[in-house]
Amino acid sequence: MTSDRTEPFAWTDGIEARWRGPASEAYRAKHRAAAEDAVRIRRAMQLLAKAIRLSKDGFSAQELEILEDFRRLQSRADIQAEADALSTPDTTPGPPPGPRSRIADL
Q1: How far apart are CA 35 and CA 26, in angstroms?
Q2: Residue ranges of the domains in the chain?
Q3: pTM above the 0.85 mark?
């Protein structure tokens, strides 16, 4: 599941590292949101897989308690930190601004 999650983002990292301007900022915001969604989906799938395994013969009181523990852990998850790990930070400086012409203000 980990490779499925990171592979779609791997090819975009090269583009993202060199792209500048308003479009790149909008793209980075969308990419970040997709990374956060990937983290949430992964956590939900892990919880569902565990619940399915536990429910094979019905739930005992202990198993219901374990599921409640999962819910508490999920609510305390640091989605932002995990999305940071999936996102490429914009660490390279942009090109210095060139000469500016007043014609561009028209």
Answers
A1: 14
A2: 2-89
A3: no
